[in-house]
Design a protein that fits this description.
Elements (H helix, E strand, L loop, with lengths): L15 H19 L2 H16 L7 H40 L6 H9 L5 H14 L6 H55 L6 H73 L7 H71 L7
């Protein structure tokens, strides 16, 4: 015997909207906390660069790296605000869907959705509802697939912006490394050439110190760009991917709601709109009433057939008379032709002289 006991107050079926609501709440929470990230990252970045290079304002490579880092954080701030707004608007849609219960009234649901602000989720659900009101269920899967593809394109575009900033910071740092190494060679060359001069000890020391400074410049550019890249990859890109993954999960649960809640209502509407007369009652009740009408229609059709046959007979007689008249005219024409030939033969015999007899 099984010892399993269902939990008290448990649900027989799990509502997909509960999962959607949970994921969206986590997205809103993460986005709200993430808004404190860009200011902190900017402050930390400027503090670190100032400690490593107090004169970074006079260093074009370092200034470009900090400008790209600042631009990325401004974009992150804006994107987090947009993500939070999108999650909030989707939550409004979920609240409306939950208020309709397990068997939503599609007409009332459509009116409630039209009162909300425009958004991708609201428009998608409205398309589902419009198809359901028409009793159509075949297009829901295509709508879900199209919405998923649009979401993927938007997410890739959002993530690619921050990945592009990260790559550009690394490229600028690599460029600074090459510039620093390039500036290292002239003083090193002067230092080596200065060894031949006995009085050039201080010049040799100055050249070596200049080469070391330029080498430090190259190493500093690499260090700062790599540090910013690691910071962006570990914090910004990972946080965005986590948020966007939660959005995709929420969309999948919302699609489950469309399959388990909306499509059954659309099928019910389709059955109500389709004509389905009872097969037994018309055979018993309506057959005696339809026989006289059928007999009258058959009589009218038979009378129409007789009239058509009579008109056809008259037409055939007219055609026969026309054929007789045509044959008489042909006979007269043949007789006239024979007389004409006889006339021509007689005329030729009268005009032509007779041949002499031998």
């Amino acid at each position: 015997m099984s010892t399993y006991k269902p939990p008290i107050g448990g649900h027989a079926t799990e509502d997909p909207l509960r999962h959607v609501e949970r994921e969206l709440q986590e997205i809103c929470k993460t986005a709200r906390i993430g808004l404190f990230g860009p200011p902190f990252l900017l402050a930390f970045g400027f503090w670190g660069v100032t400690r490593l290079d107090p004169d970074w304002l006079h260093n074009p490579i370092m200034a470009v790296i900090l400008a790209l880092f600042t631009l990325g954080q401004i974009m992150l701030w804006r994107h987090l605000i947009l993500i939070r707004k999108g999650a909030t608007s989707t939550l409004d849609v979920v609240v409306v869907l939950k208020s309709e219960g397990l068997e939503p009234d599609l007409t009332a649901l459509r009116e409630h959705l039209l009162c909300l602000k425009d958004g991708p989720t609201r428009d998608l659900v409205l398309r589902w509802v419009n198809l359901g009101l028409q009793g159509i269920t075949l297009g829901c899967d295509q709508l879900i697939e199209n919405a998923s593809e649009r979401r993927t394109i938007r997410d890739q575009k959002l993530a690619n912006l921050h990945i592009s900033v990260n790559r550009n910071i690394l490229k600028v740092g690599f460029l600074g490394t090459l510039v620093g190494l390039l500036l290292t060679f002239p003083p090193m060359k002067r230092a080596v050439l200065g060894l031949s001069d006995s009085a050039g000890e201080m010049g040799f020391i100055r050249d070596i110190a200049s080469a070391i400074d330029h080498d430090a410049y190259a190493i500093l550019a690499t260090l700062v760009s790599t540090g910013f890249s690691i910071l962006l990859e570990a914090v910004v890109v990972q946080a965005l991917e986590r948020i966007l993954t939660r959005f995709e999960i929420a969309d999948r649960h919302l699609a489950d709601w469309g399959v388990t809640r909306l499509q059954p209502m659309a099928l019910r509407i389709a059955r109500e709109q389709a004509p389905c007369p009872s097969p037994a009652r018309p055979a018993v009740n309506t057959l005696p009433l339809s026989l006289p009408r059928t007999r009258e229609e058959m009589d009218s059709h038979f009378q129409l057939l007789l009239e058509t046959i009579a008109r056809s007979g008259q037409t055939i007689e007219a055609v026969a008379r026309a054929q007789d008249a045509l044959s008489g005219r042909l006979d007269a024409l043949l007789e006239f032709e024979s007389h004409y030939r006889e006339f021509l033969a007689a005329k030729s015999a009268a005009v032509a002289p007779k041949a002499p007899q031998a």
